[in-house]
């Protein structure tokens, strides 16, 4: 495992940060968060091509735990939810250079158990008090739900934007928060839920259960066991349609990559790296991202990249819209999470000002650069962007080869 080379400081605590500024993890690498064998908070990256494990962050202090890790919206930073015995609970953002920014500090007596990024750029957090809160860019928290059960797992359904979480208890539920009705809808009862992630391609939720120890699948057909041989302390999805599950299989911590049927494809031994595994996330998992801070009267650089190597050279278009729901369902596995409106039509006609690169062809690495000018007169206006890669040799719906995530942009 690579050595720690940069030291930062957070709330008076020495924060050891892996020197990743010059050696950013490759796209598709996996970030794993938890606590080390000495009970220090820890995040590492795993290159799934070479099985190389590299340090991203170490937070000293017995009892310190990094409960959650996710990619920030711009694909150039990470968001962590952290519990520390003296500094308390907080959400933070760290750039590859090691620069740390605190997003939110939880009140005394309340700590984060998990977090997820919402499609509009806010952060959802589950707390030790059984609450789910929505934290905006200004650090203002709004409580969406309060219950009596501990919530260990939290995710966002990418089409609706609804939070989905799992409760850790003998009568634990999967719950979905309906933002329209402002209430939680009960899903199946599953004891001791440790983790979950949304499989948007197949309209399903993958769930890690402690009793029995298994990775389960919940979809319209009900709850089925995907695998009982892989650890389920943490679950994440990769762009190629496979999943990574991490935790303890027997007495050894490991990371296992599985396919949609639960078959093990790859195993990485994490012995000596983790004592507790809490969260996993794919690095660079968003196909469309901004590559610089958002500021008025400037052009925001954008990058579109397809996870499919076969998309290299294919035409693409970046679609803008002023709304994202309900969006357009293209096929059983493809959903465009924005609405076609007058702004979209303007871009398709090639008449959207200040948007070079919105129509073009991907390069040999299946990526392209674009930008969008953000006039100061649009302060407070939210614009949604999504990328579509085309296969012009195919009829509908096959002509839509790849659909990216939806990127929300709001001028501060």
**Which percent range describes the beta-strand content?**
over 45%
Task: Give the N-to-C terminal Cα separation.
Answer: 40 Å
Poorly predicted spans:
1-9, 16-23
Q: Give the helix proportion (percent range).
A: under 10%
**What is the CATH C-level name of the largest domain?**
Mainly Beta
Alpha-carbon Rg, integer: 21 Å
Tell me about the biggest sheet? 6 strands, antiparallel
Extended strand count:
35
Supply the number of helical segments: 1
> What is the average of the pLDDT values?
85
Number of domains: 2
- The secondary-structure class comes to mainly beta
Identify the strand order in the major beta sheet: 1-2-5-4-3-26
According to CATH, the homologous superfamily of the largest domain is: TolB, C-terminal domain
- Note the overall shape: globular
* CATH T-level fold name of the largest domain: Neuraminidase
Q: What's the architecture of the largest domain in CATH terms?
A: 6 Propeller
Q: Could you walk me through the main structural features you see in this protein, from its secondary elements to its overall organization?
A:
The protein has 1 helix and 35 strands. With 412 residues, the protein is mainly beta. The chain folds into 2 domains: 277 residues, TolB, C-terminal domain (Neuraminidase, 6 Propeller), CATH 2.120.10; 123 residues, Immunoglobulin-like (Sandwich). The longest helix is centred in the last third of the chain and has 7 residues. The radius of gyration is 21 Å and the shape is globular. The chain starts with 5 loop residues before the first strand and ends with a strand.
């Amino acid at each position: 495992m690579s050595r720690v080379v940069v030291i930062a400081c957070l709330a008076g605590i020495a924060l050891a940060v892996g020197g990743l500024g010059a050696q950013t993890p490759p796209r598709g690498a996996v970030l794993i968060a938890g606590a080390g064998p000495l009970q220090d908070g820890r995040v590492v990256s795993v290159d799934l091509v070479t099985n190389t494990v590299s340090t991203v962050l170490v937070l000293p202090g017995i009892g310190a735990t990094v409960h959650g890790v996710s990619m920030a919206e711009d694909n150039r930073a990470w968001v962590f939810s952290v519990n520390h015995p003296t500094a308390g609970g907080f959400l933070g953002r760290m750039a590859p250079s090691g620069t740390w920014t605190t997003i939110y500090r939880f009140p005394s007596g309340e700590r984060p158990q998990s977090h997820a990024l919402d499609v509009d750029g806010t952060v959802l957090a589950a707390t030790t008090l059984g609450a789910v809160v929505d934290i905006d860019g200004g650090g203002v928290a709004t409580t969406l739900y309060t219950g009596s059960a501990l919530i260990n797992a939290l995710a966002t359904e990418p089409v609706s934007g609804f939070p989905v979480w799992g409760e850790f208890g003998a009568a634990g539920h999967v719950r979905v928060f309906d933002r329209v009705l402002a209430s939680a809808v009960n899903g199946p009862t599953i004891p001791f839920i440790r983790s979950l992630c949304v499989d948007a391609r197949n309209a399903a939720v993958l769930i890690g259960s402690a009793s029995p120890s298994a990775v389960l699948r919940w979809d319209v057909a009900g709850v089925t066991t995907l695998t009982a041989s892989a650890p389920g302390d943490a679950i994440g999805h990769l762009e190629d349609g496979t999943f990574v599950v991490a935790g303890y299989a027997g007495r050894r911590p490991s990371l296992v990559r599985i396919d949609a049927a639960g078959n093990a494809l790859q195993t990485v031994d994490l012995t000596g790296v983790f004592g507790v595994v809490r969260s996993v996330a794919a690095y660079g998992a968003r196909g469309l991202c901004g590559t610089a801070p958002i500021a008025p009267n400037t052009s925001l650089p954008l990058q579109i990249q397809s996870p499919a190597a076969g998309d290299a050279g294919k035409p693409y278009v970046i679609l803008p819209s002023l709304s994202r729901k309900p969006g357009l369902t293209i096929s059983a596995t493809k959903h465009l999470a924005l609405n076609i409106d007058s702004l979209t039509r303007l871009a398709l006609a090639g008449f959207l000002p200040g948007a070079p690169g919105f129509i073009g062809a991907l390069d040999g690495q299946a990526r392209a650069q674009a930008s969008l000018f953000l006039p100061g007169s649009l302060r407070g206006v939210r614009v949604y962007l999504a990328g579509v890669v085309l296969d012009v040799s195919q009829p509908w719906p096959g002509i839509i080869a790849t659909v990216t995530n939806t990127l929300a942009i709001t001028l501060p």
